[in-house]
């Protein structure tokens, strides 16, 4: 029993470190962008592709990455993905010019797209449904919050004292350690030989190309204009390809993404929650960083330290999930998390251009608690009653919901701010006072979205409408 517990602890350690690395890389790049642009001679417009190349490939390959995990083996794909991410990081650190760095970021994005669903499905397959899995997901999700905060702090420190390349190199030893440990602590998991292992090539091509074009539209829309031909045409083409994907999936005998998964109310609710979660909580780091660095004029290191209360509260929030689930159920737990987030955003709305860290601390503590509770619970919901053969693609769908929700949510919030305040008074405002006013609107929109999340939790996870795990498995088999 003690040996089994030790191996379980090592297993969640490896999976949590993978999540830490992905989350850290998400925020660390923003701190390094000015130095990268200066050293590699990026133009202002081309510098965004250091971020966009990662997002584009990550968002486009998530679904196919999830299905590859199910078919080829989750541990195998986890190791391949970790190796790709490590190689991309190494290439990024050595990049002699801008194009090489953008290609390296694309390789990191591919590694991330394969790694994210593989990590989640390994948690689902290596830990039994119930408290054991919930605990593992709590640790995994907490490391995500730690990674995002640590990325801001570590990015400022490494860029200041070692140069921007060090922010890429830091991933390499982590990847090597994880690759060494993985064969010993994680059990392989895949579709059994008695099940159909056909790979839906036409579905994979249409959904990957469609997602890449839609994500491209969401990335470029704010820069070039939502109705500009250079963004609108790829966006329409992406939607057409996704519609084609839906037609293919309904007609093929062995679909990449069986639509019967959406009949599982716990799973479809998790996808909806993921969209709203990223649209609200997902932009918190973005807006807080703007406030700390552009309004209060904190350094990158000071900004990173300011996020520590959010990280600590996320630790506490993740530890509350099992207890909340036993008392309030799925709907109540997600509803409580969303309500805490809404309260946190409400406390952040009155921020002042002459404020301080202490003024935002109550708000970010509540937001951190809510963030951890919702994030952990939505992945518990995604795995509840899910047929084992589709754990990878189910995890990928929830992660896709996060990607789309984050992009659309930020775009909508910025559009509302611009419409409400007018040009020159939004997030591109010149004075700290005008920028601070725009942030009031941003946190207000975050609060509205979090309140919408409470409604979703009641509608999708209502006990009278949701099925038991056993019933959900039977429904999936149909």
UniProtKB/TrEMBL annotation:
Pfam families: MFS_1. It comes from the Bacteria. The keyword Membrane applies. One of its GO terms (cellular component) is plasma membrane. Residues 11-465 form the Major facilitator superfamily (MFS) profile domain. It is a multi-pass membrane protein. One of its GO terms (molecular function) is transmembrane transporter activity. InterPro entries: MFS, MFS_dom, MFS_trans_sf, Sugar_transporter_CS. The keyword Membrane applies. Keywords: Cell membrane, Membrane, Transmembrane, Transmembrane helix, Transport. It is found in: Cell membrane. The lineage of its organism: Bacteria, Bacillati, Bacillota, Bacilli, Bacillales. The chain crosses the membrane at residues 47-65, 77-96, 102-124, 136-158, 164-187, 199-219, 225-248, 269-288, 300-318, 330-351, 357-383, 404-421, 441-461. CDD domains: MFS_MMR_MDR_like. This is Arabinose ABC transporter permease.
